[in-house]
Amino acid sequence: MAGFFERLRQGMTKTRTGLGDKIRALVGGRQWSDSLYDDLEEILYEADLGAQAVESILDQLRQRVRESRPERAEDVLDLLRQVMVSMLESMPNPYELTGTPAIWLMVGVNGTGKTTTAGKLAERMKRRGHSVILGAADTFRAAAAEQLMEWGRRAGVDVVHQVEGADPAAVAFDTVRAASARKLDLAVIDTAGRLHNKAHLMQELGKIARVVGRECPGAPHQVWLVIDATTGQNGLEQARVFQEAVNVTGIVLTKLDGTAKGGVAFAIHQALNIPIGFVGVGEKLDDLMTFDPEGYVRAILGMEEPH
Amino acid sequence: MFDALTEKLQQTFKRMRNKGRLTEADVKEALREVRLALLEADVNFKVVREFLGRVEARAVGQDVLESLTPDQAVIRIVRDELIQLMGSHVERVHMASNPPTVIYMVGLQGAGKTTASAKLARMLRHQGRQPLLVAADIYRPAAIDQLKVLADKIQVPVVTEPSKTPVELAELGKAASRRMAKDVIIIDTAGRLHVDDDLMGELEAMNARIPANEMLLVVDAMTGQDAVRVAEAFKERLPLTGVVMTKLDGDARGGAALSIREVTQLPIKLVGSGEKLEDLEPFNPDRMASRILGMGDILTLIEKA
Ligand SMILES: Nc1nc2c(ncn2[C@@H]2O[C@H](COP(=O)(O)OP(=O)(O)OP(=O)(O)O)[C@@H](O)[C@H]2O)c(=O)[nH]1
Ligand SMILES: Nc1nc2c(ncn2[C@@H]2O[C@H](COP(=O)(O)OP(=O)(O)OP(=O)(O)O)[C@@H](O)[C@H]2O)c(=O)[nH]1
Ligand SMILES: [Mg+2]
Ligand SMILES: [Mg+2]
């Protein structure tokens, strides 16, 4: 399978207006002049980094440019890369399992890729030698359980589910029970998409986490907030509210196989210090990668892969 | 929530006023607050630039300079321009003069196509039409089940058949509409990336066989800067006729609406405002403008009171 960087580049090179070409045209063989800051600003904004992150990045860049006085535009771009990478942080080991069984919860707004990622994670963890079970705690959306069951089939993993309209906390509870009784390593619990401004739905999520925690101390051990890479600045508020409701431990940034750069995840990391654990790069079982800050920043900036 | 932009503009102008009369330069400076607000609302960077050019041309006029409340004068201009840009009247879904009307729902993964298909079927039925749904997403796990469950709730038939291609399913839909005397065919298509050449080609092939009367691009209101690129790419290959904005029940400002409108000139025809099937409304440019500027909540509150 292609490396992280290459996978991200695929989407971008497919589009004529890719940032890569633009930025290469911008800096290629040119001398640095301060007027180019505006162009860099545009590139960062168009990657959805948002005002705060852009400002903070450019401030640091200006500082470094003052210090090292690079001549070529390429060198400034490289400084920019360094600044951005230094601001990110990957999870040391997103595969790490704490808790027996370990309980992971998938949360996020509607349609971001929670169910798909739950399936991908189950398969990945199974392939890494762990015993895994899935829980279909989205009892609200039409055919959500059927969707997860298909992923369970693909991953070769059992799925705990109930009828549509059942109490999601009860399904989560059953899932934890099943994982404990069968002495499994990991339960991945899918939840319904919910907009963070709906207080009752956020309370429901809090209840799911509490019920899980009562049954298995310390659970949920990971709460993955699934963010769609096409999301704009609203992602920040999503993260803030989900963080409050269920103590998010990591982000999964999905749909990075398109042309969107998911810069809001950068902004979220800046503002709330939530690390990015995985990225989704497609709709197939295998289209999941651990997050690599260096590769990600290079992809945003349309740079070449390091040799 | 009080309108943050008005507040900021108020402060900015007040600071300037303290130095004496307002100048054109002051107004330009104040427009930087507008720029930030639009960017925070996810309006595309380039669209913001062009839009502000137009606003500036009007705002450096005497009205603003001599106004006692220059902040409100500026806001008014910004809002007027926003509304004008987004079309000043309600756009509707057009019915073919020679039924059946064929409506395609297309867009990125997870945008809300399947939900919007069922919502639209429900809306049209309430308007006295006889819609039929076609489940043409043969890829996503349980996509067909999802549409069936939704269609069941509103008692609209769904055309589906195992191991058929999307093109064949569209054909089946057309045939079924004749047989069942249905006058609208709503085709729920699979989510796809605009850069996915094969899947974009599939939609072209469907449309070549069963031409669309309406081809609606379904866009998530939370979409950021990429909205423009997506809409342009879909429009380049398909005869899009309008946009459906979904998930407006969230608190995203929805700048994508403005960006798409400016770049593609496509009208926004409908908005989704919830997960339930009755949560579909005609698009209201005026309200959208307020929302992008952060005044949306106030309007909604007034309406609900
Ligand atoms: N291109 C691409 N599509 C993805 C990716 N992850 C998920 N999808 C697609 O996005 C759509 C939504 O995915 P789901 O997993 O159903 O999302 P969800 O968050 O569970 O949605 P709800 O439960 O309805 O809130 C589906 O069509 C998936 O195939 C990804 O990394 N890349
Ligand atoms: N809150 C809210 N949720 C919505 C709205 N429209 C759709 N959704 C939700 O968004 C998620 C995705 O909706 P779908 O209709 O499955 O989206 P889709 O475009 O068909 O997805 P794919 O077929 O996977 O590409 C589901 O959880 C829906 O319930 C809306 O207007 N408001
Ligand atoms: Mg789901
Ligand atoms: Mg669908």
Automatic annotation (TrEMBL), chain A:
UniProt KW keywords: Cell membrane, Cytoplasm, GTP-binding, Hydrolase, Membrane, Nucleotide-binding, Receptor
Organism: Sulfobacillus harzensis
Functional summary from the UniProt entry: Involved in targeting and insertion of nascent membrane proteins into the cytoplasmic membrane. Acts as a receptor for the complex formed by the signal recognition particle (SRP) and the ribosome-nascent chain (RNC).
Name of this protein: Signal recognition particle receptor FtsY
GO cellular component terms given for this protein: cytoplasm; plasma membrane
Encoding gene per record: ftsY
Record GO terms (molecular function): GTP binding; GTPase activity; signal recognition particle binding
Record Pfam families: SRP54 (PF00448), SRP54_N (PF02881)
Assembly and oligomerization: Part of the signal recognition particle protein translocation system, which is composed of SRP and FtsY.
GO annotation terms (biological process): SRP-dependent cotranslational protein targeting to membrane
Topology versus the membrane: Peripheral membrane protein
Catalyses which reaction(s): GTP + H2O = GDP + phosphate + H(+)
Sites where the protein binds GTP: 108-115, 190-194, 254-257
Keyword GTP-binding: yes
Automatic annotation (TrEMBL), chain B:
Family of this protein: Belongs to the GTP-binding SRP family. SRP54 subfamily.
Function per UniProt: Involved in targeting and insertion of nascent membrane proteins into the cytoplasmic membrane. Binds to the hydrophobic signal sequence of the ribosome-nascent chain (RNC) as it emerges from the ribosomes. The SRP-RNC complex is then targeted to the cytoplasmic membrane where it interacts with the SRP receptor FtsY.
UniProt name for this protein: Signal recognition particle protein
Enzyme class: hydrolase
Domain comment quoted from the record: Composed of three domains: the N-terminal N domain, which is responsible for interactions with the ribosome, the central G domain, which binds GTP, and the C-terminal M domain, which binds the RNA and the signal sequence of the RNC.
Keywords assigned by UniProt, alphabetized: Cytoplasm, GTP-binding, Hydrolase, Nucleotide-binding, Ribonucleoprotein, RNA-binding, Signal recognition particle
Domain of life: Bacteria
Residues making up the signal peptide according to the UniProt record: none
Gene name of the encoded protein: ffh
Source organism per UniProt: Sulfobacillus harzensis
Binding site for GTP: 107-114, 188-192, 246-249
Quaternary structure, from the entry: Part of the signal recognition particle protein translocation system, which is composed of SRP and FtsY.
GO terms, biological process: SRP-dependent cotranslational protein targeting to membrane
Subcellular location: Cytoplasm
GO cellular component: signal recognition particle
Catalytic activity: GTP + H2O = GDP + phosphate + H(+)
Domain SRP54-type proteins GTP-binding: 267-280
Enzyme Commission number: 3.6.5.4
Gene Ontology molecular function: any one: GTPase activity
